[in-house]
Amino acid sequence: MSTSTTTATRTIDGHVLPAAGTWEIDPGHADVSFTGRHLIVTKVRGRFTDVHGTVRVGERMTDSQVDVVIGMASVTSGSETRDDHLRSADLFDVERFPEATFRSVRTEWSGTQGVVHGELTIHGVTRQVALDASFEGQVRDPWGADRAIFSATTTVNREDFGITWNVPPEAGGLLVSKDVTITIDVETVLQPRS
């Protein structure tokens, strides 16, 4: 394995990767979104605007760790009525379960892509999920901060997390799909070493 390093990146076997260290998620440039289906046909998208956490990049990428907290009340889907329903006890029940969390337990990595295995807690229920993740690049912003961009995706069955509300339409099927695709795009900022 050949390695060369700068302050914010390193090149390992020809792939530019983020330097080892703690990269803090910039909440203003974090997009955690979900896509389900309405009437099993139309895609319905929503996102959360309250996202914070850290990506701790290891000397070996396989030693990296991810911790994320999402404020569930920050959900927005383009419809105030739907957002109120998402926050209600029928679905996210944000009064009882104000946060969702993801904590990695194991990382597989090759080149600029990997799989991050972890514990996703939503609605008070924790399940093992695998995120298909990638490192999208690094930039230095106009204020001198080094930023690394990561993306990830996974699909979960919302009923596995106790979110079971649904209405059967007259034509059959379900009003809201069980499977939900989660897509994550975040900018992270390299923190000074203590």
Automatic annotation (TrEMBL):
Instruction: List, alphabetically, the SMART domains matched.
Output: YceI (SM00867)
Q: Where is the Lipid/polyisoprenoid-binding YceI-like domain?
A: 22-189
InterPro entries, A to Z: Lipid/polyisoprenoid-bd_YceI (IPR007372), TTHA0802/YceI-like_sf (IPR036761)
SUPFAM superfamilies hit by this protein: YceI-like
Question: One Pfam family from the UniProt entry?
Answer: YceI
Read off the PANTHER family from this record: PROTEIN YCEI (PTHR34406:SF1)
Question: Which family is this protein grouped under?
Answer: Belongs to the UPF0312 family.
Q: What is this protein called?
A: Polyisoprenoid-binding protein YceI
Organism encoding this protein: Pedococcus cremeus
